[in-house]
Amino acid sequence: MKKMVRKTAAALTAIAGAIAMAGATAQTVQDTQTPSNGLNIPDGVTVFGTNPDIRKPTAVVNDTVITGTDVDQRVQLILGLRDLKVSEEEKAQLRLQVLRAIIDETLQIQEAAVNEITITKAEIDQGFNRVASNFQRTPEQLKTYLDEVGASERTLRRQIEGELAWRRLLSRQVTPFINVGEEEVQAVLARLEAAKGTDEYHLKEIYISATPDRAAEVTAAMQKMLEQLRGGAPFEYLASTYSEASTKAVGGDLDWVRLPMLPAPLQQAAQEMNVGQIAGPIEVPGGYSMLYLVDKRQVLTADPRDARLSLRQISLGFPDGTTQEQASARAAAFAKATQAIRGCGEVTKAAAELNAEVVDNDSIRIRELPPQLQEIVLKLQIGQATPPFGSAADGIRSLVLCGRDEATGGGLPSAQQIQSGLEEQRVNLRAQRMLRDLRRDAVVEYR
Description:
Layout: H1 2-18, E1 59-61, E2 64-66, H2 68-82, H3 88-114, H4 121-134, H5 139-148, H6 153-173, H7 182-194, E3 199-209, H8 215-230, H9 235-242, E4 253-257, H10 264-272, E5 278-284, E6 287-298, E7 308-316, H11 324-339, H12 347-354, E8 357-365, H13 371-378, E9 389-391, E10 395-405, H14 415-441, E11 444-446
Antiparallel strand pairs: 1-2, 1-11, 3-4, 3-6, 5-6, 7-8, 7-10, 9-10
Helix pairs in contact: 1-4, 2-3, 3-6, 4-6, 7-14
């Protein structure tokens, strides 16, 4: 059971936390014709010289060389660890994204070195071992796997070094100078108290700007993304590759938001979505968005999906060579047997009659189950079983509810938690500004 849950949630979380591309900060595209930008760019410009649409795969950043091999290995690191299959066109776009990320990473390492910050081999080893653990491999197994997928141990170590160096630089130059006053904390607590009981949505977004003449092109691109998502591509990968919103740096994650914080079209979409559902393309001011509803809750209210369950899973695999007719017959017999179960004490007997396996899990939250099962399990009484679910490849299974510890909590966060959150937001904002300044002052030569 734990393995099933990890496949649906924890793997992507590990990728985002342990090997997220350091410092990949996106900027929303602005309309160059608006008077407020101060550039005074005329309509109908003619571009002279090099075609600006051409981007080369290697660069020299302040005398540090980024080679084509560096880019290729980082691309394979992303694709390999996420087990993604992409077209050549998508791979070319990913290469450009990766090149920009490596440039930022190089600038961060260089700035840390200027400030006499050095990351030791032991620290990088520790980070490498943590990534290996997140992917349920030993360090040696991870090294072998990286070689097999065309990546390398070196490129992952370089990424870890960049993340550690930037974090340490921020802790020295930014964090000590961030101040959050008591009045600010109390104001946040008051707003939370006033919002108690209102719906809150954990959303992820892909946003692409579009002028009227590009509307068809952008919506077609988003429809293609939907097909990729149905094929198993992670939403975070598509957001970090294609989105033009500032949240692309965190896989499109908007975190927990309330409806008034969203544009009207996204408010309506969020209200109509179920947890785990994707909606889009949705027309919004300036372009189109795609939304993924990760979770939903009520502010400061105990959520039934935080209840902890004791479950018994009964599962039946299909041997190789099983025909469709045989599979249907076995599934029907499985469904009849599991729906006849009256209490967890009967699971072992039913499993023996079906030649099925039983796995117990005594502490799993409802929200940790796949979205399709959450609503079903919420309505179960003790001793009841879910309808059978599964696939031809994974076999068929059912969950039997043996116990439930109802959700508690829903109180206000502590003042310290609020203060820490506000401080983190301000550190992140300052970090984006620092990286912007580093990019502006850098000498980058594309080759």
